[in-house]
Amino acid sequence: MKLLLDTHVLIWYLADDPKLPSAIRDLIVDPHNHVFVSVATVWEIAIKKALGKLSSPDNLPEVLVACAFEVLQINIFHALEAGALPRHHDDPFDRMLVAQAILEGLTLATSDSRIPAYNISILTV
Predict the structure, then answer these.
(1) 68, 75 in Cβ contact below 8 A?
(2) Is the pLDDT of residue 14 over 90?
(3) Phi, psi values for residue 73, rounded to 5°
(4) pLDDT value at position 89?
């Protein structure tokens, strides 16, 4: 399975938060699965951390490497797809994750109740 973690799922995973179901945690740590973290997620974390809305490791890039997560860059096709999506969701970070999941054939692990409206492969947390 190719998983794309949304911001909440990544933060919960890194914090070993019980909000993340063990079944999702097991999929993340399964060496047969390929786990991605979007640059959009890192950007959102950086913004919310600067605003004091969440905490995250100061060495997030190193932590992602240590977890064997692949950082998914944003490209022009992702941007165009995000802009063309139906308006089920107006958060630009979530729209980018949906676009990346569509174009890269990823399953999005998310707690966002609006994401299923896009009819993409998801794991609901």
Answers:
(1) no
(2) yes
(3) -70, 160
(4) 87
Percent of the chain with pLDDT strictly greater than 90: 96
Tell me the domains of the chain and their CATH numbers.
2-124 (3.40.50.1010)
Torsions phi, psi for 22 (to 5 deg)? -60, -30
DSSP H/E element including 13: helix 7-14
Distance CA 70, CA 104 (A): 13
Phi, psi of 39 (to 5 degrees): -60, -30
The pLDDT assigned to 53 comes to: 94
Predicted confidence band at 38 (pLDDT cuts at 50, 70, 90)? very high
The residue behind tokens 């950082």 is 71
Burial of 49 (0-12, 13-18, 19+ CB in 10 A): middle
Q: To 10 degrees, the CA torsion angle through 15, 35, 9, 58?
A: 40
Query: Residue 74, exposed/middle/buried by CB under 10 A (0-12, 13-18, 19+)?
Result: middle
Distance between CA atoms of 62 and 2, rounded to whole angstroms?
A: 21
